[in-house]
Design brief:
It is built from 16 helices and 17 strands. It has 413 residues and is α/β, with parallel strands linked by helices. The strands form 4 sheets. The chain has a 6-stranded mixed beta sheet with strand order 2-1-3-8-7-6, with helices on both faces.
Length: 413
């Protein structure tokens, strides 16, 4: 079965909102063995939505929409579905009752617009929304499955998993999808593709490979679409061969990301880590603490953006700053060593640099970054990066490289 995604909303088309829903849904659908063949964005216009539904029904087996299910005047998805299927909208009492309960909990009353929100196309299968007032909708129309979900990401996800996911599994007549992901660092996608090319060439046609690059990282996904045990055994053998071939470039697989791999090593050693961050502004700490249970191995961070704080809280010598500048190997070493002492940890990561887009010089252009990883045992490693002028990318790249360096020094211990 093939899917088409339709994102509804002027805010997506004019760039005010980034369409993260489509990317998330595409990954979830792929994991269920349902490829997305097209993805469209349409405005808050009934005729545009109706036309998109018609075109999608000509091409896809499953059509999923996000957006336009709220109570305001620009929420037109319900009416568009009714016009598309040529059916009336009728008052759906259970939906309005839920809205009333939610408002009563807030000490408020629903407005007339919520009465309109509760008017759903006749015969709809309502999909529960545990995170908001807008219900999801499912229609089986002319042999095609149409699923409408809210545009608010956390509401959409609450509807999709488990409700839509269960529905898709019940109607998907295709082969079972198996997927395995390797997380790698240190080399680009071209190098890695060449590294395992002899293995991928031996794979059967129903095994697919995807190389998904990011900043200093590449995910390699190996997919199988089959219900055959023989095919599954072949897929498993291919995965084992790739694992062996990747060697030092592999930092994790499955759900073991770089951050989780670092967490495992620190936990196993019984070590605590901390960060001293300048240009990254706490982004490294954010990445580390994105995983549950981070308090077991992460003690804290000192965001010493201003030089005064580098001196006061990290013990950086003023003479070092005067002689070499804040963005230097000498300074980042003192930041890391100062963090070890101030935070009383076994390992510390420090970063200082010029994120941009301004602030650079001839000697230290925008994108100049120094990273240091220091261990309480005395071991220390530094690295200089020369990045580009995009501020947010420079922050992300610096943070990622810092974690890669941390992983490397931990693996060597």
């Amino acid at each position: 079965m093939k899917a088409i995604l339709i994102t509804i909303g002027n805010e997506v088309l004019n760039g005010q909102v980034v369409d993260t829903n489509a990317a998330w849904l595409a990954q979830e659908l792929l994991a269920e063995g349902i490829p997305v063949i097209e993805k469209w964005s349409v405005s808050d216009d009934i005729q545009a939505i109706v036309q998109a539904l018609q075109q999608a029904s000509d091409k896809g087996d499953i059509i999923l929409t996000t957006g336009g299910l709220g109570p305001t005047a620009d929420d037109l998805t319900s009416e568009a579905f009714a016009q598309f299927m040529k059916i009336p909208r009728i008052f759906h009492a259970p939906t309005y009752a839920k809205i009333e309960i939610l408002f009563n909990q807030l000490g408020r009353s629903p407005s007339d617009s919520h009465l309109e929100q509760a008017r759903l196309p006749e015969g709809v299968d309502v999909i529960p929304n545990t995170a908001g007032t807008a219900p999801g909708m499912h229609f089986l129309y002319q042999g095609k499955h149409f699923i409408a979900m809210p545009g608010v990401p956390f509401e959409m996800k609450a509807i999709f998993d488990p409700h839509v996911k269960s529905l898709l599994r019940s109607v998907n007549s295709g082969p079972t999808r198996f997927s395995h992901t390797f997380y790698t660092v240190g080399e680009g996608e071209t190098f890695l593709e060449d590294l395992i090319k002899d293995i991928t060439r031996k794979a059967s046609a129903n095994i697919g490979f995807a190389f998904l690059p990011d900043l200093y990282k590449v995910r390699i996904r190996v997919d199988l679409d089959s219900n055959s045990k023989e095919d599954y055994d072949h897929w498993t053998a291919i995965i084992n061969q790739i694992r062996d071939r990747l060697g030092k470039y592999r930092v994790g697989e499955g759900d073991l990301t770089l951050e989780k791999a670092i967490a495992q090593i620190l936990t196993r050693k019984g070590w605590m880590m901390g960060t001293a961050e300048s240009c990254t502004g706490g982004h490294i700490a954010h990445q580390v603490t994105s995983n549950a249970g981070a308090s077991d191995y992460f003690k804290g961070s000192i965001i010493a953006y201003h030089n005064q704080l580098k001196v006061k809280y990290l013990g950086v010598n003023q003479t070092t700053l005067d002689s070499f500048g804040a963005v230097s190997e000498e300074t980042v070493k003192e930041m890391a060593l100062g963090a070890l002492d101030a935070l009383n940890t076994e390992v510390a990561v420090a970063v200082t640099g010029i994120a941009g887009p301004d602030g650079g010089s001839v000697d230290k252009p925008v994108g100049t970054v120094w990273i240091c990883v220091a261990l309480k045992s005395g071991k220390l490693k530094t690295k200089k990066l020369q990045l580009r002028r995009d501020r947010l990318l420079n922050i992300r790249a610096s943070s990622t490289m810092a974690l890669i360096m941390l992983y490397g020094i931990l693996m060597d211990e």
